[in-house]
Design a protein that fits this description.
Blueprint lengths: L2 E6 H4 L20 E3 H6 L3 H11 L13 H12 L2 E3 L8 H4 L5 H25 L3 H10 L7 H25 L14 E4 L3 H5 L7 E3 H22 L13 H18 L4 E3 L2 E2 H14 L24 E5 L12 H5 L13 E3 L1 H10 L45 E5 L1 H13 L3 H12 L9 H10 L2 H12 L6 H7 L4 E2 L11 E2 L11 H6 L13
Antiparallel strand pairs: 1-2, 3-9, 4-5, 6-7, 8-10, 11-12
Helix pairs in contact: 3-6, 3-8, 4-19, 6-8, 8-10, 8-11, 10-11, 11-12, 11-15, 12-15, 15-16, 15-18, 16-18
Length: 533
């Protein structure tokens, strides 16, 4: 009887994960071995496996700056300077405030994404015999009842793998425009698929940037087809599960980055990367499954509830999966008992805050305290627990740590579509997208006419950079915005270590491949291809 050599019993049951630690991808994780017929008889067998992959996004990694995706979001936003630390009594995230990616952080981000890729490959092996039937069903339009659930979850597997490769490129590769259209030659990161796992490959060579993007596109395009077809046939368990629109925005964001390396190159179906980015983002918007957070709720939700109509992808934090002190709200919310409330305040850069205030129309200024307040510039109008917003007394603040984690909002689709339209030369369309978003961000007493005046007086690139940095503050987009758009910034006065520093993305903001990978992956040279951070 054939064994599933690659599948952990604990993964299949959704009870745990094997970590590859600081080494390269673990091809044969330790754990129980299931026989093929045992796996086939498990109810929702693939669902248990993919829930294990999702759990990587919020699992506690052993340190209080290691709690999954939201920790990585903080790494990027602090490193970029958009999120400032004015004080550090406990040391968590301090190195990023000082502008460094130390070795353990490089290894954490690397292992985080490659663990997901490895587990996705294992899922693919488990269902590969049924993949042709899944595709045939899509072509014929006739659902196969025996595989409709597997088709639904297999789409999520592919979307997660594409998302992970996209994340790796953003941290471990040069900014795309610095590659000067040499993506067919420029080496980047290793690519692992189910084929390498089955062949027992001990590591893999670095693929070219083009090859990685080809993998990303193929995974996400097929994921969208599968989720469009099988999604309506199944019940989405929660917003933790990727749906077709989430997959579209993941692909759109990846193609937005790719376009800077090769703006006129054809990716697929006669379309450039920017065309695909705008098309995918626009489809996610026009499908109408999610809506922009309305002006009336701009400062009332706390960005802590996964049921919000603008949240596309997120985690419902419960007593079973909360990471407590080591969590995004623990690190950022001054109304939650943890580091921010105890004095390690995370705040918006003071110069960026001044930019918001200077517009005269932007209600997002109220997402943050002013510089003259206690806990200056902290985001207690954006990230907070509404039940305890009235207090910052450590005896009275939130001690449940049940605020939900956001991974994607529909607002990002408008920003992607706007930027892609601008790069295609359609500035009017780009500003239309921005106007749609910003019309729900007006200060009390201000009108769309005030917004129109600002848009007319502001060049499109400036408006794009501004809205990426402000709208998505604290959600992990700051670093990539500055890298992608080659935007240098001078930091404000509320930084612990870099007050007044000028940050240039072409010279900073890049992770090296961890030495553990270069040491144990026989295909990689010991010399680094990435710049010193």
């Amino acid at each position: 009887m054939k064994n599933i050599k690659y599948f952990l019993a604990t993964i299949v049951l959704g009870l745990g994960l094997t970590s590859c630690g600081d080494s390269f991808l673990t091809q044969y994780p330790e754990g129980g071995v299931l026989l093929q017929d045992q796996f086939d008889k498990l109810p929702d067998n693939l669902k248990g496996s993919i829930m294990g992959i999702y759990s990587k996004m919020y699992e506690y990694g052993g340190e209080h700056d290691e709690f999954g995706q939201r920790a990585i979001d903080m790494y990027g936003d602090i490193q970029s300077g958009d999120m400032a630390m004015a004080k550090s009594s406990y040391g968590w995230f301090e190195s990023y405030e000082r502008g460094y990616f130390y070795a353990y952080a490089r290894s954490y981000i690397w292992s985080y994404y490659y663990d997901m890729i490895n587990l996705a490959n294992l899922c693919e092996i488990a269902v590969e015999e049924n993949v042709p039937a899944m595709r045939d069903a899509i072509i014929s339009g006739d659902p196969n009842a025996t595989i409709k659930l597997q088709g639904y979850y297999y789409g999520q597997v592919l979307a997660l793998r594409g998302w992970a490769y996209s994340g790796l490129l953003q941290y471990y590769c040069d900014p795309m425009d610095a590659l000067s259209s040499q993506i067919d030659e420029e080496k980047s990161i290793p690519v692992y698929t189910a084929t390498e796992v089955k062949n027992g490959a001990l590591g893999a060579p670095r693929a070219t940037v083009a090859e990685v993007y080809e993998r990303i596109y193929e995974d996400l395009y097929e994921a969208i087809e599968l989720l469009d077809f099988y999604g309506p046939l199944n019940q989405r368990g929660s917003k933790l599960e990727i749906d077709a629109d989430v997959a579209r925005v993941i692909l759109a964001y990846a193609m937005l980055h790719r376009g800077y390396a090769d703006p006129t190159g054809i990716v697929a179906d006669g379309k450039t990367a920017f065309e695909i980015a705008q098309e995918m983002a626009d489809e996610a918007i026009s499908n109408g499954n999610y809506s922009i957070l309305p002006n009336a709720e701009l400062t009332t939700t706390g960005f802590m509830d996964v049921s919000s109509a603008n949240w596309m992808w997120g985690e419902d934090v419960t007593v079973e999966n909360t990471t407590g002190l080591a969590s995004f709200f623990g690190q950022v919310d001054i109304h939650t008992y943890s580091y921010a409330a105890a004095g390690d305040t995370k705040a918006i850069d003071s110069k960026l805050y001044d930019e918001i205030a200077a517009t005269g129309w932007d209600g997002r200024v109220n997402w943050f305290r002013s510089g003259s307040d206690v806990f200056p510039y902290c985001p207690d109008g954006k990230f907070f627990n509404p039940k305890t917003k009235h207090t910052t007394k450590l005896d009275d603040v939130d001690r449940d740590w049940l605020c939900d984690n956001v991974f994607m909002r529909i607002e990002v689709a408008y920003l992607i579509a706007a930027e892609a339209a601008w790069k295609r030369g359609d500035e009017a369309k780009a500003k239309d997208y921005l106007k749609t978003l910003c019309s729900q961000r007006l200060l009390e007493g201000k009108t769309v006419a005030d917004l129109d005046t600002w848009l007319a007086a502001t060049d499109t690139k400036t408006a794009l950079v501004y809205n990426w940095r402000v709208e998505m503050w604290g959600e992990g987009y700051g670093l990539q915005t500055l890298r992608r758009l080659n935007k240098s910034v001078t930091l404000g006065s509320n930084h612990l270590a870099r007050e007044g520093a000028k940050l240039t993305p072409t010279e900073q903001f890049q992770c090296q491949i961890p030495t553990s990978e270069t040491r144990y992956n026989p295909y990689l040279a010991t010399t680094q291809f990435a710049k010193d951070e």
